[in-house]
Amino acid sequence: MTSAHERIEAARKRYGSRLAILGHHYQNEAVIRHTDFQGDSLELARKIGGLEAEHVVFCGVYFMAESAVALARPGQKIHIPHADATCPMADMAPAQRVEDVLNELRSQGKLVIPLAYVNSSAEVKAICGLYGGSVCTSANAKVMLEWALQQGDAVLFLPDKHLGNNTANQLNIPQGERLQVSIRPGQPVVDMKKAAYARLLLWPGSCVIHHALKKQHLDDIRRAIPGVKIVVHPECSPAVVRAADSAGSTSHIIRYCAQAAPGAKIAIGTEVNLVLRLADKHKAEGKVIVPIKTMRCTNMAKTTEERLAELLDNLDAATPLSLPADVSEHAQVALTRMLDICS
Ligand code: SF4
Fold first, then answer.
1. Of the chain's two ends, which shows fewer C-beta atoms within 10 Å, N or C?
2. How confident is the prediction for the chain on average, in pLDDT?
Protein backbone atom coordinates (compact mmCIF):
# COMPACT_ATOMS: atom_id res chain seq x y z
CA MET A 1 0.00 0.00 0.00
CA THR A 2 1.29 3.46 -0.91
CA SER A 3 2.15 5.56 2.13
CA ALA A 4 0.88 9.10 2.71
CA HIS A 5 4.44 10.32 2.24
CA GLU A 6 4.69 8.69 -1.20
CA ARG A 7 1.26 9.99 -2.28
CA ILE A 8 2.29 13.55 -1.35
CA GLU A 9 5.56 13.21 -3.25
CA ALA A 10 3.67 11.85 -6.28
CA ALA A 11 1.27 14.81 -6.18
CA ARG A 12 4.21 17.21 -6.02
CA LYS A 13 5.61 15.67 -9.21
CA ARG A 14 2.19 15.79 -10.91
CA TYR A 15 1.56 19.44 -10.09
CA GLY A 16 5.10 20.80 -10.17
CA SER A 17 5.11 24.61 -9.89
CA ARG A 18 1.28 24.67 -9.98
CA LEU A 19 1.33 23.66 -6.31
CA ALA A 20 2.77 25.41 -3.23
CA ILE A 21 2.46 24.05 0.31
CA LEU A 22 2.76 26.46 3.23
CA GLY A 23 3.06 25.40 6.86
CA HIS A 24 2.83 27.22 10.16
CA HIS A 25 5.63 26.59 12.66
CA TYR A 26 3.19 24.78 14.98
CA GLN A 27 2.64 21.97 12.46
CA ASN A 28 4.16 18.61 13.25
CA GLU A 29 7.32 17.38 11.56
CA ALA A 30 5.58 14.80 9.34
CA VAL A 31 3.63 17.65 7.72
CA ILE A 32 6.25 20.40 7.82
CA ARG A 33 8.78 18.31 5.85
CA HIS A 34 6.44 18.54 2.83
CA THR A 35 6.11 22.33 2.90
CA ASP A 36 7.77 24.78 0.52
CA PHE A 37 7.59 27.58 3.06
CA GLN A 38 7.36 27.57 6.83
CA GLY A 39 6.67 30.65 8.89
CA ASP A 40 4.57 32.48 11.42
CA SER A 41 1.32 34.16 10.45
CA LEU A 42 3.03 37.34 9.20
CA GLU A 43 5.69 35.55 7.17
CA LEU A 44 3.12 33.29 5.52
CA ALA A 45 0.71 36.17 4.81
CA ARG A 46 3.55 38.02 3.07
CA LYS A 47 4.30 34.99 0.89
CA ILE A 48 0.83 34.73 -0.68
CA GLY A 49 1.11 37.76 -2.99
CA GLY A 50 4.35 36.53 -4.55
CA LEU A 51 3.32 32.93 -5.19
CA GLU A 52 2.89 31.86 -8.81
CA ALA A 53 1.24 28.53 -7.93
CA GLU A 54 -2.36 27.94 -8.93
CA HIS A 55 -3.02 25.74 -5.86
CA VAL A 56 -1.85 26.91 -2.45
CA VAL A 57 -2.29 24.39 0.36
CA PHE A 58 -2.22 26.03 3.76
CA CYS A 59 -1.22 23.74 6.64
CA GLY A 60 -2.34 25.62 9.70
CA VAL A 61 -5.64 26.69 11.18
CA TYR A 62 -8.69 28.08 9.42
CA PHE A 63 -8.16 31.81 9.99
CA MET A 64 -4.72 31.58 8.34
CA ALA A 65 -6.18 30.03 5.20
CA GLU A 66 -8.92 32.70 5.18
CA SER A 67 -6.26 35.42 5.25
CA ALA A 68 -4.59 33.67 2.33
CA VAL A 69 -7.89 33.78 0.40
CA ALA A 70 -8.17 37.53 1.04
CA LEU A 71 -4.60 38.09 -0.18
CA ALA A 72 -4.64 35.62 -3.09
CA ARG A 73 -4.44 36.83 -6.67
CA PRO A 74 -7.40 36.14 -9.02
CA GLY A 75 -7.59 32.51 -10.06
CA GLN A 76 -5.43 31.26 -7.20
CA LYS A 77 -7.04 28.45 -5.20
CA ILE A 78 -6.43 28.19 -1.45
CA HIS A 79 -6.95 24.83 0.26
CA ILE A 80 -6.79 23.67 3.86
CA PRO A 81 -6.31 19.95 4.59
CA HIS A 82 -8.69 19.96 7.57
CA ALA A 83 -11.48 22.56 7.51
CA ASP A 84 -12.36 21.85 11.16
CA ALA A 85 -8.92 23.03 12.29
CA THR A 86 -10.20 26.21 13.88
CA CYS A 87 -8.60 28.45 16.48
CA PRO A 88 -10.58 28.57 19.74
CA MET A 89 -9.25 32.07 20.43
CA ALA A 90 -10.51 33.34 17.05
CA ASP A 91 -13.89 31.78 17.91
CA MET A 92 -14.02 33.89 21.09
CA ALA A 93 -14.72 36.96 18.93
CA PRO A 94 -17.87 36.34 16.84
CA ALA A 95 -18.14 39.01 14.13
CA GLN A 96 -21.64 40.23 14.98
CA ARG A 97 -20.68 40.68 18.65
CA VAL A 98 -17.53 42.56 17.62
CA GLU A 99 -19.52 44.97 15.48
CA ASP A 100 -22.17 45.47 18.21
CA VAL A 101 -19.52 46.15 20.87
CA LEU A 102 -17.64 48.53 18.58
CA ASN A 103 -20.79 50.48 17.77
CA GLU A 104 -21.71 50.71 21.45
CA LEU A 105 -18.24 52.00 22.30
CA ARG A 106 -18.48 54.56 19.50
CA SER A 107 -22.01 55.63 20.50
CA GLN A 108 -20.57 58.11 23.03
CA GLY A 109 -18.82 60.03 20.24
CA LYS A 110 -15.39 58.53 20.79
CA LEU A 111 -13.56 57.33 17.66
CA VAL A 112 -12.64 53.76 18.60
CA ILE A 113 -10.37 51.98 16.10
CA PRO A 114 -10.56 48.17 15.94
CA LEU A 115 -7.26 46.28 15.81
CA ALA A 116 -7.54 42.51 15.46
CA TYR A 117 -4.82 39.99 16.08
CA VAL A 118 -4.58 37.84 12.93
CA ASN A 119 -6.00 35.01 15.03
CA SER A 120 -9.51 36.16 14.16
CA SER A 121 -12.08 35.32 11.51
CA ALA A 122 -12.14 36.97 8.08
CA GLU A 123 -15.43 38.64 9.08
CA VAL A 124 -13.72 40.28 12.06
CA LYS A 125 -10.82 41.41 9.87
CA ALA A 126 -13.40 42.84 7.44
CA ILE A 127 -14.95 44.87 10.28
CA CYS A 128 -11.48 46.23 11.05
CA GLY A 129 -11.00 47.18 7.40
CA LEU A 130 -14.41 48.81 7.25
CA TYR A 131 -14.02 50.83 10.47
CA GLY A 132 -10.59 52.30 9.71
CA GLY A 133 -8.63 49.70 11.67
CA SER A 134 -6.25 46.92 10.81
CA VAL A 135 -4.80 43.65 12.02
CA CYS A 136 -1.54 42.65 13.67
CA THR A 137 0.55 39.60 14.40
CA SER A 138 2.53 38.89 17.55
CA ALA A 139 5.61 40.02 15.59
CA ASN A 140 4.31 43.51 14.85
CA ALA A 141 1.71 44.13 17.57
CA LYS A 142 3.73 47.02 19.08
CA VAL A 143 4.04 48.89 15.76
CA MET A 144 0.40 48.27 14.88
CA LEU A 145 -0.95 49.29 18.28
CA GLU A 146 1.05 52.52 18.12
CA TRP A 147 -0.36 53.11 14.64
CA ALA A 148 -3.95 52.39 15.71
CA LEU A 149 -3.68 54.72 18.73
CA GLN A 150 -2.75 57.54 16.33
CA GLN A 151 -5.86 56.94 14.17
CA GLY A 152 -8.50 57.76 16.77
CA ASP A 153 -9.32 58.35 20.45
CA ALA A 154 -9.03 54.72 21.55
CA VAL A 155 -8.33 51.21 20.24
CA LEU A 156 -10.44 48.08 20.61
CA PHE A 157 -7.84 45.28 20.63
CA LEU A 158 -9.14 41.79 20.04
CA PRO A 159 -9.43 38.91 20.66
CA ASP A 160 -6.28 38.30 22.77
CA LYS A 161 -6.26 40.23 26.04
CA HIS A 162 -2.81 38.86 26.91
CA LEU A 163 -1.18 40.04 23.69
CA GLY A 164 -3.01 43.35 24.16
CA ASN A 165 -1.77 43.80 27.73
CA ASN A 166 1.77 42.62 26.95
CA THR A 167 1.97 45.05 24.04
CA ALA A 168 0.52 47.86 26.18
CA ASN A 169 3.26 47.12 28.73
CA GLN A 170 5.88 47.56 25.99
CA LEU A 171 4.31 50.91 25.11
CA ASN A 172 4.02 51.97 28.78
CA ILE A 173 0.27 52.49 28.53
CA PRO A 174 -0.85 52.99 32.16
CA GLN A 175 -3.26 50.45 33.67
CA GLY A 176 -5.75 53.29 34.23
CA GLU A 177 -5.99 53.79 30.48
CA ARG A 178 -6.85 50.14 29.80
CA LEU A 179 -10.28 48.61 30.16
CA GLN A 180 -11.53 45.10 29.47
CA VAL A 181 -14.90 45.05 27.73
CA SER A 182 -17.72 42.69 28.63
CA ILE A 183 -19.03 40.74 25.66
CA ARG A 184 -21.97 39.05 27.37
CA PRO A 185 -25.16 39.93 25.52
CA GLY A 186 -27.55 41.94 27.70
CA GLN A 187 -24.76 43.36 29.89
CA PRO A 188 -23.20 46.82 29.53
CA VAL A 189 -20.06 46.57 27.38
CA VAL A 190 -18.12 48.87 29.71
CA ASP A 191 -18.67 51.32 32.51
CA MET A 192 -19.00 54.38 30.28
CA LYS A 193 -17.45 56.67 32.93
CA LYS A 194 -14.27 54.54 32.96
CA ALA A 195 -14.38 54.20 29.17
CA ALA A 196 -14.03 57.99 28.89
CA TYR A 197 -10.42 57.64 30.16
CA ALA A 198 -9.56 54.40 28.37
CA ARG A 199 -7.26 54.47 25.37
CA LEU A 200 -7.07 50.70 25.12
CA LEU A 201 -10.20 48.55 25.24
CA LEU A 202 -9.43 44.85 25.48
CA TRP A 203 -11.54 41.95 24.29
CA PRO A 204 -11.57 39.20 26.95
CA GLY A 205 -10.19 36.37 24.77
CA SER A 206 -7.03 34.32 25.08
CA CYS A 207 -5.30 31.26 23.64
CA VAL A 208 -6.19 28.31 25.84
CA ILE A 209 -2.83 26.69 25.09
CA HIS A 210 -0.66 29.66 26.09
CA HIS A 211 -2.96 30.77 28.91
CA ALA A 212 -2.36 27.41 30.61
CA LEU A 213 1.30 28.28 31.20
CA LYS A 214 1.68 29.71 34.71
CA LYS A 215 4.50 31.48 36.52
CA GLN A 216 4.84 28.40 38.73
CA HIS A 217 5.91 26.38 35.66
CA LEU A 218 8.70 28.91 35.04
CA ASP A 219 9.81 28.75 38.69
CA ASP A 220 9.87 24.94 38.49
CA ILE A 221 12.01 24.83 35.34
CA ARG A 222 14.49 27.38 36.75
CA ARG A 223 14.93 25.08 39.75
CA ALA A 224 15.20 21.96 37.57
CA ILE A 225 17.72 23.43 35.08
CA PRO A 226 20.12 25.87 36.78
CA GLY A 227 21.22 28.65 34.44
CA VAL A 228 18.34 28.09 32.00
CA LYS A 229 17.10 31.04 29.93
CA ILE A 230 13.37 31.27 29.41
CA VAL A 231 11.67 32.62 26.30
CA VAL A 232 7.88 32.71 25.91
CA HIS A 233 5.26 33.75 23.38
CA PRO A 234 3.29 36.96 24.17
CA GLU A 235 0.01 35.02 24.06
CA CYS A 236 1.09 33.97 27.59
CA SER A 237 -0.21 36.04 30.50
CA PRO A 238 1.66 39.23 31.51
CA ALA A 239 2.74 37.49 34.76
CA VAL A 240 4.48 34.77 32.70
CA VAL A 241 6.00 37.28 30.27
CA ARG A 242 7.38 39.30 33.23
CA ALA A 243 8.94 36.19 34.74
CA ALA A 244 10.63 35.16 31.46
CA ASP A 245 14.02 36.33 30.19
CA SER A 246 12.56 37.16 26.80
CA ALA A 247 9.19 37.18 25.04
CA GLY A 248 8.22 37.45 21.41
CA SER A 249 6.64 35.91 18.34
CA THR A 250 7.60 32.51 16.95
CA SER A 251 10.13 34.21 14.66
CA HIS A 252 11.61 35.93 17.75
CA ILE A 253 11.84 32.57 19.55
CA ILE A 254 13.56 31.01 16.53
CA ARG A 255 16.10 33.87 16.41
CA TYR A 256 16.64 33.67 20.18
CA CYS A 257 17.67 30.02 19.88
CA ALA A 258 19.82 30.64 16.79
CA GLN A 259 21.69 33.51 18.47
CA ALA A 260 22.26 31.74 21.82
CA ALA A 261 25.82 30.70 22.57
CA PRO A 262 26.82 27.04 22.02
CA GLY A 263 25.92 25.03 25.11
CA ALA A 264 23.08 27.38 26.10
CA LYS A 265 20.14 25.96 28.03
CA ILE A 266 16.81 27.37 26.85
CA ALA A 267 13.27 26.60 28.02
CA ILE A 268 10.48 27.71 25.70
CA GLY A 269 6.84 28.52 26.39
CA THR A 270 4.96 27.94 23.17
CA GLU A 271 3.50 25.13 21.05
CA VAL A 272 5.57 22.00 21.51
CA ASN A 273 6.08 21.15 17.81
CA LEU A 274 8.15 24.29 17.33
CA VAL A 275 10.12 23.62 20.53
CA LEU A 276 10.97 20.05 19.49
CA ARG A 277 12.05 21.23 16.02
CA LEU A 278 14.34 23.86 17.54
CA ALA A 279 15.76 21.32 20.00
CA ASP A 280 16.62 19.02 17.12
CA LYS A 281 18.03 21.81 14.94
CA HIS A 282 20.44 23.10 17.60
CA LYS A 283 21.42 19.79 19.22
CA ALA A 284 24.70 19.60 17.29
CA GLU A 285 25.74 23.01 18.75
CA GLY A 286 25.32 21.57 22.24
CA LYS A 287 22.27 23.74 22.95
CA VAL A 288 19.74 22.15 25.27
CA ILE A 289 16.26 23.34 24.28
CA VAL A 290 13.21 22.08 26.17
CA PRO A 291 9.52 22.97 26.52
CA ILE A 292 8.67 24.59 29.86
CA LYS A 293 5.54 22.47 29.71
CA THR A 294 4.10 20.36 26.89
CA MET A 295 1.73 22.79 25.16
CA ARG A 296 -0.01 21.12 22.24
CA CYS A 297 -2.57 22.82 20.01
CA THR A 298 -5.07 20.09 19.15
CA ASN A 299 -6.41 22.16 16.26
CA MET A 300 -3.00 22.56 14.65
CA ALA A 301 -2.60 18.79 15.12
CA LYS A 302 -5.69 18.09 13.01
CA THR A 303 -3.55 18.53 9.89
CA THR A 304 -1.79 15.20 9.54
CA GLU A 305 0.31 13.75 6.76
CA GLU A 306 -2.62 11.47 5.86
CA ARG A 307 -5.01 14.46 5.63
CA LEU A 308 -2.56 16.30 3.40
CA ALA A 309 -2.22 13.22 1.18
CA GLU A 310 -6.02 12.87 0.93
CA LEU A 311 -6.34 16.48 -0.22
CA LEU A 312 -3.52 16.20 -2.75
CA ASP A 313 -4.86 12.89 -4.16
CA ASN A 314 -7.89 14.80 -5.50
CA LEU A 315 -6.74 18.39 -5.57
CA ASP A 316 -8.36 19.30 -8.90
CA ALA A 317 -11.74 18.12 -7.62
CA ALA A 318 -11.35 19.79 -4.20
CA THR A 319 -13.44 22.86 -3.45
CA PRO A 320 -11.09 25.71 -2.62
CA LEU A 321 -11.82 27.96 0.34
CA SER A 322 -13.84 31.04 -0.55
CA LEU A 323 -15.12 34.14 1.21
CA PRO A 324 -18.11 36.37 0.43
CA ALA A 325 -16.88 39.15 -1.88
CA ASP A 326 -17.49 41.97 0.63
CA VAL A 327 -15.77 40.08 3.46
CA SER A 328 -12.78 39.35 1.25
CA GLU A 329 -12.58 42.96 0.05
CA HIS A 330 -12.67 44.54 3.52
CA ALA A 331 -10.46 41.89 5.14
CA GLN A 332 -7.93 42.57 2.38
CA VAL A 333 -8.03 46.28 3.24
CA ALA A 334 -7.19 45.49 6.89
CA LEU A 335 -4.44 43.00 5.99
CA THR A 336 -2.90 45.23 3.33
CA ARG A 337 -2.80 48.15 5.77
CA MET A 338 -0.73 46.00 8.12
CA LEU A 339 1.58 44.75 5.37
CA ASP A 340 2.12 48.32 4.11
CA ILE A 341 2.78 49.74 7.58
CA CYS A 342 5.19 46.93 8.41
CA SER A 343 6.89 46.67 5.03
FE1 SF4 B 1 -5.28 29.28 18.34
FE2 SF4 B 1 -3.66 28.99 20.45
FE3 SF4 B 1 -3.90 26.98 18.69
FE4 SF4 B 1 -2.59 29.24 18.02
S5 SF4 B 1 -1.99 27.75 19.60
S6 SF4 B 1 -4.12 28.15 16.79
S7 SF4 B 1 -3.83 30.78 19.15
S8 SF4 B 1 -5.53 27.82 20.04
1. N
2. 95
